[in-house]
Write a structure and sequence with these properties.
By secondary structure, the protein is an alpha/beta fold. It contains 14 helices and 17 strands. The strands form 4 sheets. The protein has a 9-stranded mixed β-sheet with strand order 9-10-8-7-6-5-4-1-11, sandwiched between helices. Strand 9 and strand 10 form a beta hairpin. Helix 11 crosses helix 14. The longest helix is centred in the middle third of the chain and has 17 residues. It binds iron/sulfur cluster. The site of iron/sulfur cluster has 11 residues, from loops.
Length: about 375
């Protein structure tokens, strides 16, 4: 296991579109949380959770990991480094913290850097205060630039911004302006997510009672393609469906997922994968905490992937990235229908690989169906 994900479930409120497994708390139970994660690690019953391999990436995601006090983050990282035998002199481990802009104070940023964090992923989402309020975000637009400058002053040069696009038309969100403002901050990395409607969210309720319009496929495609052209002009390269980087600053952690590599997940709702079996933890914080405190496994369920599932997943993951799918890895020749993809310039064949273009990424499910005769929703 060279890749470790740690899920921090706490948020101060729920965003209007979010169905993640979170625990909304005014007071963050930091000590209980750190103890629970370390207890889970101990319950794995090994002195070498990396299985003899050197840790390459560690990702604190959530939730809102930046709500943990910096001393709790430092204590957690120290213990995880010890457990994975990462010596303090090693500075090549990519250690990412997901943060909300309002948590980025000079004091926190310095403490995070001191604790070993070297990459921060900021949940910016939009630079329009009306939109941020609609999303129930707790920051305003001016905090995003402040956060980036504060992080840089503390020594962070690997900063990523998350943005959400394809919002309902009535918001009249100016997507081009948001992209330009994001570029003007020169983050190393950008992650762009199209709005999706998840059950049991405020957004789903607004749509069901007609208070807001459902996301629109045409708007999604238009804004997605606009992002490609705008970000390319600013020097960013999309290396995955939703992720763009400049100067090669790709997320090494997420790239491991897209390469189908093994990873270990700790914390409530965290997933783990060993190349064949996917496991996931109890999702509710209290249930997770009680289980590990009682010495019970955090894992709620597991799924052994069949050969067919692994192959389908391999195709999906390969085609999500700009490396594409090596044709030599296919068990049969490309079906004639894929010629249509090349003609339409939705995909290209380059160096023996089938690589999606942005228009192809918009149609990824259809491409997989053409390749395999099967596909999955979503
Ligand atoms: S901050 Fe992130 S995890 Fe928390 S509610 Fe908002 S979108 Fe969900």
């Amino acid at each position: 296991m060279r890749h470790l994900y740690v899920h921090v479930p706490f948020c101060q409120r729920r965003c209007s579109y979010c169905d993640f497994s979170i625990a909304v708390r005014k007071r963050i139970p930091a000590r209980e949380y750190v103890d629970a994660v370390l207890r889970e690690l101990k319950l794995l019953g090994t002195t070498d959770p990396g299985g003899g391999e050197a840790l390459e990436t560690l990702y604190l995601g959530g939730g809102t990991p930046s709500l943990l006090p910096p001393e709790a983050i430092a204590a957690l990282l120290t213990s995880l480094r010890d457990a994975f035998h990462v010596t303090p002199s090693r500075d090549d481990v990519e250690i990412t913290l997901e943060a909300n802009p309002e948590d980025v104070t000079p004091q926190n940023a310095r403490a995070w850097r001191h604790a070993g964090i070297n990459r921060v992923s900021l949940g910016a989402q939009s630079f329009d205060d009306r939109v941020l309020q609609w999303m129930h975000r707790s920051h305003d637009a001016s905090r995003i630039g402040d956060a980036v400058r504060t992080l840089r002053a503390a020594g962070f040069d690997n900063i990523s911004l998350d943005l959400i696009f394809a919002l309902p038309a009535e918001l009249e969100r100016d997507w081009a302006r948001d992209l330009d403002l994001a570029c003007s901050l020169h983050p190393a990395h950008l992650s762009l997510y199209g709005l999706t409607v998840e059950e049991r969210t405020p957004l789903a309720r607004w749509i069901s009672r007609g208070a807001t319009a459902a996301p629109d496929d045409d708007r999604y495609a238009e804004e997605y393609l606009l992002a490609h052209s705008r970000l390319a002009a600013c020097g960013y390269q999309f290396y995955e469906v939703s992720n763009a980087a400049r100067d090669g600053r790709r997320s090494r952690h997420n790239s491991a997922y897209w390469s189908g590599l093994a990873y270990l997940g700790l914390g409530p709702a965290a997933h783990s994968f060993d190349g064949r079996v996917r496991r996931w933890n109890r999702s509710a914080w209290e249930s997770y905490r009680r289980a590990v405190s009682a010495g019970l496994p955090a894992v709620q369920a597991a799924e052994v992937l069949t050969e067919e599932q692994r192959e389908l997943e391999r195709l999906y993951l390969a085609l999500r990235t700009d490396r594409g799918l090596p044709l030599a890895s296919l068990s049969r020749p490309l079906p004639p229908s894929t010629a249509h993809w090349v003609e339409q310039v939705w995909a290209e064949i380059s160096d023996g690989r089938l690589v999606c273009r942005p228009e192809g990424w918009l149609r990824l499910d259809a491409l997989i169906r053409d390749l395999t005769g099967v596909g999955r929703a979503g």
